[in-house]
Write a structure and sequence with these properties.
single chain; alpha+beta; seven-stranded mixed beta sheet
Length: about 280
């Protein structure tokens, strides 16, 4: 078995695998946990060219896609255009914004060797392509989510600057939009990327489970996930603070309006008593 090359992209938030499977004539109902694997005749019909038996494309429901042994830009672009017909949100021209390259090398060695660019294994196992692809897919999806979290932080920093300048009023729409971004960020991380979920093969094969755990640890997926979770909780606390300040200001404003109306009514009563009003 020759070496394998992997190229992963995070191209959108969600991909409907079942819609693609129906179009490809794949008689299977896909769940969130498993990727759609395109190879052989199906991949040949999409790319309109002959493909090697080692070439595969793994499409993940959380918006990532991994190419195995695809070296030409035209092949990648053709497949992305194909997916774009199902998911219009995919930006084909900016697909490489969140991407990663990796390789699998088979070499006579006593143990598995992991590096930033490749993994070396003593012999090939059929589960390697899917497990490596899954880790890469989650890694680039996390990278995308991490950048989006940075954008939310920038928005909150602007709101904090306004508070420091004494501009205490924050509109309900602005609070709602910012909170929605935080909720969407958390939902994309928890529900879609599924960092804590493992491929089925890891539950039936101990060696596959050990390899997957090593990949997870090397790419620091669990640590990155925990950091995102803690940052999200901080964002919620900040938004609670903004919401409390905003509601307090509105409550104070309403109280002042009530006081003014009471005073106005008292003044009218006094003027009436003094005969100054008809």
């Amino acid at each position: 078995m020759r070496d394998l090359t992997f190229k992963a992209f995070a191209i959108t938030h969600e991909i409907d695998l079942n819609k693609i499977a129906v179009h490809c004539g794949i008689p299977k109902k896909f769940t969130w946990e498993e990727p759609l694997i395109l190879r052989g005749e199906i991949l040949k019909s999409i790319l309109h060219k002959d493909v090697d038996e080692s070439q595969m494309v793994l499409v993940f429901s959380f918006g990532s896609i991994v190419f195995i042994n695809h070296s030409t830009h035209n092949e990648i672009t053709a497949l992305l255009n194909y997916l774009h017909s199902f998911e219009p949100d995919i930006e084909v021209k900016n697909a490489d914004r969140y991407s990663d390259d990796y390789s699998l090398h088979i070499k006579a060695t006593e143990s598995i060797e992991l590096t930033d660019e490749y993994v070396v294994v003593p012999e090939y196992e059929s589960y390697y392509p899917e497990l490596i692809s899954t880790v890469l897919a989650k890694s680039v999806a996390l990278e995308k989510t991490e950048e989006q979290l940075g954008q939310i932080n920038d928005k909150l920093e602007t709101m904090i600057d306004r508070l420091e300048k004494g501009k205490l009023r924050i509109g309900n729409k602005e609070l709602a939009r910012t909170t929605a971004k935080i909720v969407r960020h958390e939902y994309n991380t928890l529900a879609y990327i599924m960092i804590l979920d493992k491929p089925d093969i890891t539950w039936t094969s101990s060696t596959a489970g050990e390899f997957y755990d090593k990949m997870l640890e090397f790419f620091e997926l669990n640590d990155r996930y925990k950091i995102l979770k803690s940052k999200t909780e901080i964002l919620y606390n900040i938004m609670d603070g903004f919401s409390t300040i905003s509601h307090s200001i509105r409550g104070l404003f309403v109280e002042w309006i009530i006081v003014i109306l009471i005073l106005f009514e008292i003044v009218l009563s006094l003027l009436g008593i003094a005969g100054l009003l008809p």
